[in-house]
Amino acid sequence: MKKIIECVPNFSEGRDMAIIDKITSEIASVDGVKLLDVDPGRSTNRTVVTFVGTPDEVIEAAYKAVKKASELIDMSKHKGEHPRMGATDVCPLVPVANITMDEVVEYAHKLALRIGEELNIPVYCYEHAALFPERRNLANCRRGEYEGLEKRLKQSEWKPDFGPAAFNARAGATAVGARDFLVAYNINLNTTSTRRANAIAFDVREKGRVKRHGDPLTGKIMKDEKGDPVYIPGTLKEVKAIGWYIEEYGITQISMNLTNISVTPIHVAFDEVCKKAAERGIRVTGSELVGLVPLYAMLDAGKYFLAKQQRSLGVSDGELIKIAVKSMGLDELKPFIPEEKIIEYMIAGEDEKRLVSMTAEGFAHETASESPAPGGGSVSAYMGALGIALANMVANLSSHKRGWDDRWEFFSKWAEKGQAIQKELLFLVDEDTRAFNRIIQAFGLPKNTAEEKLTRQEAIQDATRYAIEIPFRVMKKSFESMEVIEAMVESGNPSSITDASVGALCARSAVIGAHLNIKINAADLTDKVFVDNILKEAATIEKAAREKEDEILQILGRKLNC
After folding, report:
1. Which domains are seen in the chain, by residue range?
2. What mean pLDDT is predicted for residues 180-197?
3. Cis ω for the linkage preceding 446 (within 30 of 0)
4. Gyration radius of the chain's alpha carbons
5. So what's the pLDDT on residue 361?
6. Given a cut of 50, is residue 350 above it in pLDDT?
7. Which residues are designated catalytic?
8. CB within 8 Å of 63: residues ≥ 6 apart
9. Model confidence, pTM
10. How does DSSP assign 372-420, residue by residue?
11. Band of the pLDDT at 349, cuts 50, 70, 90?
């Protein structure tokens, strides 16, 4: 499962497209990243760029873009309405998939170090990447902007986190951060009244509305001892919102920025606006996502709405996305195309032929072809995936069985566990073939010199180890699936327990097949300690899988009285 981060650098050039194109070309030149958006602003003289990819590649692309910006943009001549202090003013990194914020902070520091040392640009780290509490707020780091930077760099309390404490007149300074994913989200209303839409926006946004003396609409605004307005907080944290009228559609919307979707997810914002709108006699008719969204946000929304219906959450990603789209009306104004709106789907390798995307017939034909891969390893992983899929089917059928409504959550939890195992095994179907291809590539490395021979041998050994680790993961996951299978034979819909039992046969076969793959690859690995340990554990798993299969079939025999 690839780790994916987003990078949103802001460059202090929004008018000269030749310069902007040269900067973004540096980003696009890096394999493993995808340039998603380039948004130049003429009045701000600033361009916001968005790209995503795997972490090391994103860091490389960001560094190249910062370097090119420092060569092409002269801050001593820059004018613009937006606060700024450098050619690359800010460069935040954002976790998207399979990566924690702590990991993203490490990458931010790695990028900041490289910019500071190799480009001689002072760097401040902000938000989650901040090394000092007072630098967490970007506005503090940028106070005084470019014009006050030379004086500020001389102050000991504002020594840069990375790079020289010396004024770089051309490039200025850069702020590198790690922040949460921001989602731009609009909710549609069945009214044309901007005033009423704003009232709902003030109900929900974190800032809320101003507090007034007497009448809440016309009374005098209350102020604190500093003379600033006093606000009544709204109901949603980390949310900014305003109401506006969209002439194109003839409706008003609540336009929202969800600045931390781990605090206020999309589906929570949607339901809260529905509630507040209803209190004012207004109905929500749908919504729209502006820009892209991480996959997990859509999956969480699908599970949320299924749980409200007391339906099993252990369904495919595609089904969860469909439920989310229909529940929030994301397709009301225009079609919602997951491949164009979900980040992970957008950056999926289009040139890679995935076995699991083939038809069943196509997979069989590919296996039967002259190519040595896919082979027994991929087929073993697929057998395991089919086995747990049968158990998931029984869990989902059982959660909907008439008279078992009070047990839906029991079966849903088993189905969710099974879906996670199924997803991992499907990943391993292709990963086993990739592991085999790594061995072939290693054998193809040059071996003319002693150094090349050593490099080639190390690559072969690394690839062989990986070709052992993958089927070992298949063994462990397939055996883990037998817990779900057993539960469904024991407690599932009586009409489907034979289906779950077939799953046990698949899981046992997957374990044995993957074990055979380990044995043949282990013969070529020189690390005998690793080999001995993994073969010993693999043998234990196979023995346990055979025993578990017998236990499951005995349960089935008792259920069928045969």
Report:
1. 4-178 (3.30.990.10), 183-346 (3.30.70.670), 358-560 (1.20.120.680)
2. 93
3. no
4. 28
5. 93
6. no
7. 82, 432
8. 111, 114, 115, 118
9. 0.82
10. S-S-HHHHHHHHHHHHHHHHHHHHHHHHT-TT-GGGHHHHHHHHHHHHH
11. low
